[in-house]
Amino acid sequence: MxxxxxxxxxxxxxxxxxxxxxxxxxxxCMARHGYEEIRTPILEEIEVFKRSVGESSDIVNKExxxxxxxxGRHVAMRPENTAGVVRAAIQHRFFDTSDPRRLYYIGPMFxxxxxxxxxxxxxxQIGAEIFGVAAPEADAENLTLLFELxxxxxxxxxxxxINSVGAPESRPAFYQALRAFFxxxxxxxxxxxxxxxxENPLRxxxxxxxxxxxxxxxxxxxxxxxxEASRAHHARLKELLNALEIPFEENPRxxxxxxxxxxxxxxxxxxxxxxxxxxxxxxxxxxxxxxxxGPDVPGFGWAIGLDRLAMLTQAIHGLPPGKKPALLIPMxxxxxxxxxxxxxEWRKAGMDIQLETRSITLKKxxxxxxxxxxxxAMILGDSEIDQGIITVKDLNKxxxxxxxxxxxxxxxxxxxx
Length: 417
Ligand code: HAM
Prior knowledge:
Helices cover 38% and strands 21% of the residues. The protein is an alpha+beta fold. It binds histidyl-adenosine monophosphate (HAM). The site of histidyl-adenosine monophosphate (HAM) has 25 residues, from strand 6, strand 10, strand 11 and helix 11.
């Protein structure tokens, strides 16, 4: 029997209902903050990711689903969406004015990752990006949106770590110090890290292998090499976060796995996911738009792992939001017709009604209703039709009562939500 491809899964039932609830909270929250949705294709030319996320990053180097299409184009299934959003914004001339542009997206991403807890090869992200403002006020405003969204989703037990990775101009001195450090300790690092030391030493700080993390003890930290403007940006952001009462801790080792960051970089961890799996990450990327062929427009944003978020909301809130519709069970031919008419009427009035269309015994129909988690069964037989009533059974409480058919909508609206 064919199975879903390793690392991918089908979404249905309670998990999907959590996804849908999170998505609806997100759409409302984004609208309130002036963010506009964008849906970009899953396929992009591979260069979009090579020139943004970076050729030396694990994401591009090892984890991308890329192939040559039938027309000979080298394409990739997006491993993240900041690069695609920037590509689209350049293509559609969003940056022709100096107005800030706020965009958000929800969609699946693909990374061929080693399988472990909370890691999938097709996973979902919610992301938000603000373009056009270089000042730390944009970082703080975008983080306010993030924490407002997390609050509305009922999440707590979160910790925000921030760092500044400086401007590209401040990197050479830092790289030199890092290389001098690695010269003495290179043999203690894994093969991948030894390659990273040559290609992009910043990536070594991001290695998850415990022996590499141990070998990093006492390494030079990027914050000691910051240029003056980046230092001032970072100080102002911290001041704003304090004023907004968004708690954070500074983590000078935080560099992130993507190459496009400048100045602010951050991650949010949840104690329920453990230190290896961040709930979300993001930062500033002032050179990216230009790097992808657009004007010199700064940017800042983040992406949350929706799969991880759905797991956390489920653990916090228990049952998924929304109730099961009522099951309308007709007994006999005459009732079957009447039930169809009533179901259509009640649905028009906004009620969620599912109709039992099989001709089966009441006992069997009630067994189905219980098994499928319905809260209400509404039973319609000849005597109910003659009296203009319907029998309502609350399946959780085991209570039964007769109500007039023309009072059914009022009854359902008070019990369905
Ligand atoms: P990222 O840190 O690579 O950043 O991914 C963001 C989040 O996506 C992670 O914190 C995690 O929750 C989730 N995620 C990543 N990989 C997986 C996976 N294999 N399985 C499940 N969840 C995963 C970015 O993608 C940047 N584009 C964020 C950004 C937006 N920076 C600026 N703007």
